[in-house]
Design a protein that fits this description.
Blueprint lengths: L4 E7 L3 E7 L6 E4 L39 E7 L4 E16 L4 E24 L11 E3 L7 E3 L3 E4 L3 E5 L4 E14 L9 E4 L12 E2 L6 E8 L5 E5 L1 H4 L12 H9 L3 E3 L7 H6 L1 H6 L6 E5 L10 H15 L4 E5 L12 H18 L4 E2 L1 H5 E2 L2 E5 L12 H17 L9
Parallel strand pairs: 3-9, 15-16, 15-17, 17-18, 18-19
Antiparallel strand pairs: 1-2, 4-14, 5-11, 5-12, 6-7, 6-8, 6-9, 6-10, 6-11, 6-14, 12-13, 20-21
Length: 419
C-alpha cells in the first residue's frame, strides 16, 4: 500500500489543514498534476563551508502576512457506490451545485462495476432549461481529451480555468461508453442524458431527463485554503426523501450554504459501520484539503449488533478520521419502527448510543435528535419533520441544517475571507 503524505498549512486564525494523497481502499486512482507544477528537484551535497546567499527582497512590508498559496478543495462530492452501464456512446449533462469559490477546477470521475471510456468532457456555467450560460471548456486528462479506466477506478482531470463564485452551478457534459459509478437515488434535477456525442452543444442537450448522479464524483476548486467539511452517513445524509430528490435539500448542503463553507456529501443509502469503515479511504478521505468530518452513522446497525459493538465501531471510525480531520458526531434521529430486527432493541440501542455520544464527544457533538424529536416521545419525530418515521422531510433537513450551523458557528467556523 502506498504511503500517505500529510502536509500541514496554517491559515486564518490558526486552522490546520491536513492534506492527503495516497491509498484509496478498494479502488485505484489516476491523478494528473497541474501542468504548471514544478518537477521535484534533485539533491546535491553542499560545499563544506556552506553557501553564502544574499537575502531575497520581494518588496513586501515585513510586518504584513505573506500570501497563502491557493489550494484545491472540494466544492461538490458524492460517494457513488453503485453502478450504471450504458449500451453505446452516451452524453450526460449533470447540473452540479458547487459551494466553493476559486479560479480553476478539477473534475474527478469514477468507473462502476466494469471499465469506462471517457471520450470527451466539457464544463461550463449552467444556464436555464438545460442550456449553458458560458461556452463549454474542454477538460483534459494529462493533456488528452479522454481516457479509458478499469473497474472501480477514480481519475482526476487536469486543472481547468473557470472562475466560480460560492454557490454557482456547473454543467458538466461527458461522452462515455461502459460502466459508471452511480448513486442509488436521484439528486441532481435539471440533468439530462442523450445517446451520441453532444458534450460541446451550448444549447439544451435534449434527450431524456436524468437526475441520478453518475460518473462525476468530485468537483475540486482552487482557491484560498479554508475550512472544508465532508459529511459521512447513510440515506439520511445522502438525502433520501422519496427517491426523486435534490442534493440542495440535504442538511449538509443547506448548512454549508448558510455557513459559506463547503460541506460535501459522502453519505450512502443503506450504509452501516461495516461499509463505512471498509470504504472510508476511497469515498471520503481521498478528498483533497478536508479539514472537518461530520459523522451521522449507526441507525442501520441498530438491532444487528450488541451495544458494545456499536460503540466500538463508532470509536474506531472517529479514530480513523482523527489524523485527517476534526470530527463532529451527530446523535441518531428518532426511529419510529424497525426496518429490520426487533423494535424494542432498536429503541434501546439508539438511546445508549446517543447517551454515549453526548457524554464522550463534547464539545464536538451535533445533537440532531434534540431538534427533531417529539417533546412527548423521544422515538418519534416532531410533526412535519419526517416522511416515513425514519427519514427526515425537507423541513426536517432544514431543522438539522440549522443545528449544524448553530454548533459550528459557536465553535468558530466562519466563511473564508475574500482574497
Amino acid at each position: 500500500m502506498r504511503s500517505r503524505r500529510r502536509v500541514a498549512l496554517r491559515v486564518g486564525l490558526g486552522a490546520l489543514l491536513m492534506l492527503r494523497c495516497g491509498p484509496v481502499g478498494h479502488e485505484e486512482e489516476t491523478f494528473f498534476p497541474p501542468e504548471d507544477s514544478a518537477p521535484a528537484s534533485s539533491s546535491e551535497a553542499l560545499p563544506a563551508g556552506g553557501l553564502e546567499v544574499a537575502p531575497v527582497r520581494d518588496g513586501r512590508d515585513p510586518g504584513q502576512p505573506r500570501p497563502v498559496a491557493p489550494l484545491f478543495q472540494p466544492g461538490f462530492h458524492l460517494a457513488l457506490r453503485w453502478s450504471h452501464a450504458v449500451g453505446g456512446l452516451t452524453t450526460f449533462r449533470l447540473r452540479v451545485p458547487v459551494n466553493r469559490a476559486g479560479q480553476r477546477v478539477r473534475l474527478a470521475f469514477r468507473s462502476g462495476d466494469g471499465p469506462l471510456a471517457l471520450r470527451r468532457v466539457t464544463v461550463a456555467l449552467a444556464g436555464s432549461e438545460g442550456a449553458l450560460e458560458s461556452a463549454p471548456v474542454p477538460v483534459t486528462f494529462s493533456g488528452a481529451p479522454g481516457l479509458s479506466v478499469a473497474t472501480r477506478t477514480r481519475v482526476v482531470s487536469d486543472p481547468v480555468s473557470l472562475p466560480l463564485q460560492f454557490g454557482d452551478e456547473l454543467a458538466v457534459s461527458f461522452e462515455v461508453e461502459g460502466t459508471l459509478a452511480a448513486s442509488a437515488i436521484e439528486l441532481l434535477p435539471g440533468s439530462a442524458m442523450r445517446p451520441g456525442a453532444w458534450a460541446t452543444v451550448q444549447g439544451p442537450l435534449g434527450g431524456t431527463p436524468w437526475a441520478v448522479p453518475v460518473g462525476l464524483a468530485t468537483v475540486e476548486v482552487e482557491g484560498p485554503p479554508a475550512r472544508a467539511f465532508v459529511a459521512l452517513g447513510d440515506s439520511i445524509t445522502e438525502g433520501y426523501i422519496d427517491g426523486h430528490d435534490d442534493l440542495r435539500d440535504t442538511w449538509a448542503f443547506q448548512a454549508g450554504a448558510q455557513l459559506g463553507v463547503p460541506i460535501v456529501n459522502a453519505g450512502v443509502s443503506g450504509q452501516g459501520f461495516y461499509d463505512g469503515l471498509r470504504l472510508l479511504d476511497g469515498e471520503a478521505l481521498i478528498l483533497s484539503g478536508i479539514t472537518d468530518c461530520i459523522v451521522l452513522l449507526g441507525t442501520n446497525d441498530l438491532s444487528g449488533a450488541p451495544d458494545s459493538k456499536l460503540l466500538a465501531n463508532l470509536v474506531q471510525l472517529t479514530e480513523r478520521l482523527k489524523p485527517f480531520c476534526r470530527t463532529w458526531t451527530g446523535t441518531l434521529l428518532p426511529k419510529e419502527y424497525a426496518n429490520n430486527g426487533k423494535y424494542e432493541q432498536v429503541k434501546s440501542s439508539r438511546l445508549v448510543m446517543n447517551a454515549w455520544i453526548r457524554e464522550h464527544r463534547q464539545p464536538d457533538i451535533i445533537d440532531f435528535e434534540a431538534v427533531t424529536r417529539a417533546p412527548d416521545n423521544v422515538h418519534h419525530f416532531l410533526d412535519g419533520l419526517d416522511v416515513d418515521g425514519i427519514h427526515p422531510s425537507a423541513a426536517g433537513h432544514r431543522v438539522m441544517a440549522d443545528e449544524v450551523v448553530r454548533v459550528l458557528r459557536a465553535n468558530g467556523v466562519q466563511p473564508p475571507r475574500a482574497p
